[in-house]
Fold this sequence. Notes:
alpha/beta
Amino acid sequence: xxxxxxxxxxxxxxxxxxxxxxxxxxxxxxxxxxxxxxxxxxxxxxxxxxxxxxxxxxxxxxxxxxxxxxxxxxxxxxxxxxxxxxxxxxxxxxxxxxxxxxxxxxxxxxxxxxxxxxxxxxxxxxxxxxxxxxxxxxxxxxxxxxxxxxxxxxxxxxxxxxxxxxxxxxxxxxxxxxxxxxxxxxxxxxxxxxxx
Length: 196
């Protein structure tokens, strides 16, 4: 079975590369393709894409296409102000800190696809429990913003034990940032998105 696809259409290469990485972490089952213009998208069969993440100016210049695909389109805005968003489309502000952007994407994903609705099942390898119960507790507190000392106090364990658990969690999951860890924790139901 071929993985479902997401298209990012935005001429800003750096923004596209960053968003692509985040989307692949938020929805690992999806394949993310990037395009600098609508012309590039048209040349690559737009009907194959599950969602379009599109720069505001491209939506405005190609309003008919994106209106026809309104439920699939997420407009990338630079501001949270109401006037800078298109009311008939889902919008997401990309001019925010990484943690806020991840939270917005996770909220959008959970709202649009609760419990994976309309998405293919995760591969078996991604469904397996990798972490111990204690590591899950530590991970949960990390993504909620607690520092090592606070985690040690809350779980009544030593500071060096927290540091060891933290290293083991990152190694087992192959992650290098708290943002990636946050995505993993929310997507696997270990942390409520409202607690991050």
